Every structure is written in C-alpha cells, then in structure tokens.
C-alpha cells in the first residue's frame, strides 16, 4: 500500500513540468510582548524552461512551509516570455522591481546566460539560453528577481508589433 502511494507521488513529480529553485531563505525575527517570534522567508523562482517563469515569496514558521508557499505564489505570478529560435530574447529590454533595475540584451548562439544572482535563476528557468544581463542599483535578490520578471513581461515579438501597428511584417524590418 505504502509502495503504491510512493510510486504515485513519483509519477506526479515526473508529470509536473515546473521546476522550482530557491533563491534565498532568510530567518526573520519579530519582537513581540513575550519575546522573539521566529519565522522564515523563502524567495522561489518557478519555471518550465519553455517560456514561462514566476517569482514568489513565502513566509512561514518552518522552511518547508515557506518554500511551499513561495512555489504557490510563483505559480500565481507567471510571466510569458517570447523566445527566438536562438533561445534568446527578441530585443534589448530594461526592467524595474522596487529599487532594482535589470538590463537585458539578446546574445548570439553559444554565448550562454551571462547574468548573476537571482536574475540568472529567472532567465534559466524561463528557458533563455543566450543572453547578456546586468543588475543595476540594488543587490536585493527579491527586487532583482522581480525586475527580471518585469523585463521579460515587457518583451514583444516582431509579429506582435507589426499587428499592433497594422502593417505587414516585411515593412517592419525596412
């Protein structure tokens, strides 16, 4: 009976296309009347490596609970990322999240993900393989991850832009 249940759990894990990566776990202390109350904050990035990624935050009295809440929050805040054939982004873009700014530039095939910290995690789980990115103005992992998600959400493909302007795709390049 227990073996079957374990097999079913493993099968569900394999079915799940989402990958989760914990960016930061921080122990938070709140001073209350009776002393100090400990809790944990987890920053989690959730993605399917096929153009969808989300950043979530979870707070709980134990680490596992905080990560679980962070995953649920990340799935609520999913962003669709348009990828090119070279597994890069269609155009240069900047993003803002809190006090953090992130700059992203498309790169040639074979370049890899040139980014640091939380931005690298967001890009890898989004499925971007060739990109140049730089964190500016802040070292806060949560704000940097949110800035990266903001930048990715503002990306548009050439066909979308041509459709918005009401012109053929060929005229857009000229």
Strand line-up across the major sheet: 1-2-3-4
Roughly how many Å apart are the termini?
66 Å
Number of helices: 6
Give the fraction of residues assigned to helices: 25-40%
Beta-strand level of the residues, as a percent range? 25-35%
Q: Identify the quaternary structure here.
A: single chain
CATH topology of the largest domain: Ribosomal Protein S5, domain 2
Describe what you observe in this structure.
The protein is α+β, with helices and mostly antiparallel strands and 174 residues long. It folds into 2 domains: 2-78, Double Stranded RNA Binding Domain (2-Layer Sandwich); 81-162, Ribosomal Protein S5, domain 2 (2-Layer Sandwich). It has helices spanning 2-15, 63-76, 117-126, 141-153, 158-165, 169-173, and strands at residues 19-32, 35-47, 52-60, 78-80, 93-97, 100-106, 113-114, 131-136. The strands form 2 sheets. A 4-stranded antiparallel β-sheet has the order 1-2-3-4. Strands 5-6-8-7 form a 4-stranded mixed β-sheet. Strand 7, helix 3 and strand 8 (131-136) form a beta-alpha-beta unit. The chain is globular, with a radius of gyration of 19 Å.
Topology:
Layout: H1 2-15, E1 19-32, E2 35-47, E3 52-60, H2 63-76, E4 78-80, E5 93-97, E6 100-106, E7 113-114, H3 117-126, E8 131-136, H4 141-153, H5 158-165, H6 169-173
Parallel strand pairs: 7-8
Antiparallel strand pairs: 1-2, 2-3, 3-4, 5-6, 6-8
Helix pairs in contact: 3-4
